[in-house]
Design brief:
The complex is a heterodimer of chains A (700) and B (146). Chain A has 700 residues and is an alpha+beta fold. In chain A, 51% of the residues lie in helices and 16% in strands. Chain B has two domains: 9-45; 52-145, Immunoglobulin-like. Chain B has two helices and eleven strands, in the order ααβββββββββββ. In chain B, the strands form two sheets. A six-stranded mixed beta sheet of chain B has the order 1-5-11-10-7-8, with no helix packed on it. In chain B, strands 2, 3, 4, 6 and 9 form a five-stranded mixed beta sheet that branches. The chains are: A alpha+beta (700), B alpha/beta (146).
Chain lengths: 700, 146
């Protein structure tokens, strides 16, 4: 089947919070109503049971119970409201489903209790007919009342538990503060967040939550984004940095310009993605769905068959009726229907709490089955921004370090080479802020470097290969170059007036979390592969630093997806690709699971199956762990639900009766049914306790 | 609850004893039972009607209103492939189960307030059958795109 969800969405995502609010109110109303019905049902049922006590104990009467109280007519009066007021929903639900050719939970409960009540009514009104047949004129009001009360109680517990499955989304929605302090006509005014528009200037004081997304204009602070990204450490923010709504400002104060509001904010997008994932279904659920749609009609057929067979065997219509009722009320299609969706609900919410956004239930299902994981080097294992990691003076150098850096920065600031940017950034960080000296006769030599004259000195910055061509002696440089290259650095040397003064080693540094994350992935039993466009030697050095043995180097960006396809064809199992989500989009799409590293400010990279909002690689093993936990939970639920019905229905039908004399009372059957769906939901709620295994290095 | 397990009750209560029934009555119960099973399976699982075709608005959007009352009426909706559609759900059933309708293939959940009509717009879609169901997966319908 095609996946139409890939088409642009056009659903009403505005007022999402409002509609979630509405659902909340509805759930609260449902709970209040259920509670009232359960209370009434419990009281009346207790009275009915007391009234039928003599009969249950097999005695004629009990001294403390008057005869009128134990009469079947009293029981009829007590039971009828339980059935038709407390249990009204089952009958109306069954009736309207019936008109739509549907049969569900309500049908089974209504049919089971209705038949027991009608039978009892018959023996209350016409006891002599039964007695003439040699049968006791027994009534089963207490059975009817107990079943209904149990099922109602089960519904109540289940509704409460269901409310908790969507807790994560509710918590996310509550993160946004209701008001913002916005500059209007030069004054700061407090206004509701819904009135904030793009371009507004918003003031944030220490300890406040950010109302929406934006870019810092002035001031600086540390901001805690953990509730959105799962990153435990606060992030430094200064002018020009992007900030996200719902994050928590720590100590500083700042003003930011609003860049996104309403449904465009990161928070709103996360909520929407989580909701989408919760609306999708796993492959395993498709099977359960098929079963559920056949379930109730088949159970009704089995119940009728049980009645016919027991009537033929025993000739006892009352006995046959009890088997019929037991089969109807023990069967629980709800447990089957709830088995996967509740686990998916809880797990995708739990993922969001940890900064792991699953795009669909299928992504959640597949992630745990991965065998091979391909990590893009640049931007995934490394920060993706080259930095000067080594600055080495040569022994024969005469220019002081400060002047040398100033000369280099002055020259390199005119260059457009990516390495130059890193060198300028490094040099200006080391120097006091000030104007760089003027450069005369600037010239860039392609593939070699740059040269110019500064304050009368001839300065060259470039690759070591360049200098022998100019007749400069590089003997002293050579061992340094080899050492730096072994560290996966690109080397640029500085020559002043024909003498090599120093050299820079520029590398794309590893993220702090990379090594621990790779180790964690291997512990989870995955084969880790590094994919890189770099030269084989550089790539292998980086791979060795993080503990990856298998490297696919010198891959052009356009070929990344064919590399993934080749791995899939080689039978490496399910293959995941982890990349930055923008350049790697085709490879992410080709992989069985595409995992995009977010930047914390842009979750729009929804083309991937999983988005790690924090950009921390530790999220990958965490996502796989969560997936494995979730699938184990779903398997438990499905196993329980299937096993319960497969074992319960035959027992209720009396299969064991000829062998052991065991017969399930309809009351026990009703109780078992009520609690089977509660158990499934409770088991799914256990996923709320999921914590990813912490890695030795958490901060990046 | 003395009749939890019947071993002792077989002796204690006359209910559990066998009764001789005339052959004709047994035959009648068997025939009625089998007929009831056949009818019930046909009613719940058989195909009823060919589904309702969505009407087309002037803007080229296919529209249909679905009443939510114990089930979806209609529950089989036929639409044309490659054209956008708008499904309006009118919910009159107070049961909490039907408060949500989920289209798993579209990754869409729609909350349905009681006694109100809520619309879901879906993009043009390829031919195929796309099931939808309530929040608890018990009430179901199907969108047939052809």
């Amino acid at each position: 089947m095609s996946d139409p969800s890939a088409s642009p969405s056009c659903c009403h995502s505005d007022g999402m919070a409002a509609s979630a609010d509405g659902m909340e109110r509805e759930l609260a109303r449902e709970l209040t109503q259920l509670r009232r019905k359960v209370s009434v049902a419990v009281v009346l049922t207790a009275l009915v049971m007391l009234s039928s006590l003599p009969h249950m104990l097999g005695v004629h009467s009990l001294p403390f119970l008057p005869a009128w109280f134990t009469s079947p007519w009293t029981q009829l009066i007590l039971t009828t409201p339980v059935l038709f007021w407390c249990g009204r929903g089952f009958f109306t639900g069954a009736a309207s489903a019936f008109r739509q050719h549907g049969a569900d939970m309500n049908t089974l409960v209504a049919a089971g209790t209705g038949i027991a009540w009608l039978t009892s009514l018959f023996s209350t009104v016409f006891p002599q007919l039964l007695i003439a047949e040699g049968l006791p004129a027994d009534v089963y009001y207490e059975t009817t009342a107990v079943i209904l009360t149990m099922v109602l109680l089960g519904n109540l517990l289940e509704a409460r538990a269901r409310g908790q499955t969507s807790e994560a989304i509710r918590r996310l929605l509550q993160l946004q503060p209701p008001t913002a302090r916005v500059m209007r006509d030069g004054h700061a005014v407090q206004i509701p967040v819904s009135q904030v528009v793009v371009g507004d200037l918003v003031q944030v004081r220490p300890g406040e939550k950010l109302p929406t997304d934006g870019v810092v204009r002035e001031g600086s602070s540390w901001v805690e984004e953990s509730m959105l990204t799962g990153e435990p450490t606060p992030v430094a923010k200064a002018a020009g940095d992007a900030v996200i709504g719902a994050s928590m400002n720590r100590s500083g104060s700042f003003t930011f310009r609003v860049s996104r509001v309403g449904g465009d904010t990161v928070l709103a997008q996360i909520v929407e993605l989580v909701r989408q994932a919760q609306s999708s279904r796993t492959r395993v659920q498709r099977v359960a769905d098929q079963v559920v749609s056949w379930f109730a009609p088949v159970v009704i057929a089995l119940a009728i068959a049980a009645f016919v067979i027991w009537f033929l065997v025993s000739g006892n219509p009352v006995l046959a009726m009890l088997f019929l009722v037991s089969v109807l009320v023990i069967a629980c299609p709800c447990a089957l229907g709830l088995a996967t969706p509740t686990s998916i609900m809880v797990a995708s919410g739990k993922g969001a709490e940890n900064g792991l956004i699953f795009r669909s239930a299928e992504a959640l299902e597949t992630a745990g089955k991965l065998r091979t994981i391909v990590l893009d080097k640049t931007g995934t294992l490394t920060r993706g921004q080259p930095e000067v990691t080594q600055f080495e003076r040569l022994s024969g150098g005469v220019v002081p370090a400060d002047s040398l850096l100033a000369l280099t920065a002055a020259l390199e600031s005119r260059s457009e080479h990516p390495l130059a940017e890193a060198i300028v950034a490094y040099a200006t960080r080391q120097l006091n802020p000030g104007d760089l000296p003027a450069v005369a006769g600037f010239e860039a030599v392609a593939g070699r470097g740059v040269q110019g004259v500064i304050a009368g000195q001839q300065v060259l910055v470039g690759t070591p290969r360049w200098f022998p061509e100019l007749g400069i002696d590089t003997a002293a440089l050579q061992p340094l170059v080899e050492r730096l290259e072994a560290l996966a650095c690109s080397v640029a040397a500085v020559v002043v007036d024909g003498r090599i003064e120093a050299c820079f080693g520029v590398a794309d540094p590893l993220k702090a979390s990379s090594e621990a994350a790779v180790a964690a992935l291997r512990r989870l039993g995955l084969q880790v592969v590094m994919l890189s466009g770099d030269a084989r030697r550089t790539a292998e050095v980086v791979a060795a630093q993080v503990g990856i043995e298998r490297v696919i180097a010198e891959v052009r960006p356009a070929d990344k997806s064919s590399v993934i396809r080749k791995l899939q064809e080689q039978g490496e199992g399910l293959v995941a690709m982890v990349g930055d989500g923008i350049n790697d989009a085709p490879a992410l799409a080709q992989a069985d699971v595409g995992i995009a590293m977010g930047t914390g400010t842009d979750v729009a990279i929804a083309a991937s199956d999983i988005t790690l909002i924090s950009g921390n690689l530790a999220g990958v093993p965490a996502a796989i762990e969560l997936s494995r936990h979730t699938m184990a939970n779903i398997r438990q639920n499905l196993f329980f639900a299937f096993a319960y019905n497969v074992a319960g229905i035959p027992i209720a039908a009396g299969v064991l009766f000829p062998l052991t004399g065991w017969l399930l009372s309809p009351m026990i059957a009703g109780g078992a049914m009520a609690f089977s769906s509660v158990s499934v939901v409770s088991n799914a709620l256990r996923l709320r306790n999921f914590r990813p295994t912490p890695l030795p290095v958490a901060a990046s | 609850m003395t009749h939890l397990f019947a071993a002792d009750l077989v002796k204690a209560e006359p209910l559990w004893r066998a009764i001789e029934q005339p052959m004709a009555l047994k035959a009648l119960v068997a025939i009625v039972g089998v007929a009831l099973i056949a009818w019930e399976l046909w009613w719940f699982l058989g195909r009823h009607g060919g589904g309702v075709v969505a009407r087309e608005s002037e803007a080229g959007v296919q529209e249909i209103t679905i009443t939510v009352d114990g089930g979806y009426a209609p529950s089989r909706i036929r639409v044309k492939a490659g054209q956008p559609m708008r499904l309006a759900f009118h919910r009159i059933d107070p049961s909490g189960c039907v408060a949500q309708v989920i289209f798993p293939d579209f990754h869409k959940t729609l909350d349905l307030p009681l006694d109100a009509t809520t619309s879901l717009e879906l993009p043009p879609t390829e031919a195929g059958t796309y099931p939808f169901h309530c929040g608890m997966n018990m009430v179901r319908g199907v969108l047939e795109v052809e």
